[in-house]
Amino acid sequence: MIGDPILLSQKDYTRAEKVLSQLKNNKIILIGGGSGTNKSELAYCLQKKLFDKNKSSFIISLDDYYTCMPSIRNYNRKKLGIDSVGLSEIDWQLIERIYEDFQNKRELHFKRVHKFLDAIEHNTISSEEIDYLIIEGLYANYLRKDYNDNFSVFLEGNPSQTLEFRKMRGKENENDSFRQKIVEKEFRVVVQLKRYTDLILEF
């Protein structure tokens, strides 16, 4: 999502090196894990490391593929209840189309959410010159359920750890009890996806 801050550290670059060292013939990399586990940071560092090796990559963030805009997401969640939080919030049909278009070297039709504009930008890019597709987000590992040609990475971290990191990024209000319930529900869903991973990295 355009407007979300990222905080890079040496740990993120070290993690990226570890991922690259274990890649085989995989051209699609999934990065999943709980909220605030540095998924976006790892994706950026992977892209930079690949670029340094003269390899191109393209990042898709699941944050851009929620079925409703960030400005009304909490309203909808409160209206529908905490059980509405989870996999069903993502438009998997669009994500799977991008996945398959990359596999078949077709044009990628993608979107970016502008956080501060509360607007969506739609774009198209040729995939013919893209060596690697990186898909990052809470539930990215879920794609492994139906596709086994990727390298799936899970970033470990419990709700209290990730809450602290999100506060550092200015993305969390520690006094918002409903938000804390959301983080805990997301974590319960995300943990179930660990079985779809090739590599687990500690927080």
Describe what you observe in this structure.
It is built from 6 helices and 7 strands. It has helices at residues 10-22, 39-52, 70-80, 92-103, 159-168, 177-191; strands spanning 28-33, 57-61, 108-114, 119-125, 132-136, 151-155, 199-201. With 203 residues, it is of the alpha/beta class. The protein has one domain (10-201): Rossmann fold, CATH 3.40.50.300. Helix content is 37%, strand content 19%. The chain has a 5-stranded parallel β-sheet, with helices on both faces. It has a two-stranded antiparallel ribbon with strand order 3-4. The protein starts with 9 loop residues before the first helix and ends with a strand. A hairpin with a 4-residue loop joins strand 3 and strand 4 (119-125).
CATH level 4 superfamily: P-loop containing nucleotide triphosphate hydrolases
Q: In CATH, what is the class?
A: Alpha Beta
Q: Return residue spans where pLDDT drops below 50 for at least 5 consecutive residues.
A: none
The description of the largest β-sheet is: 5 strands, parallel
Shape: globular
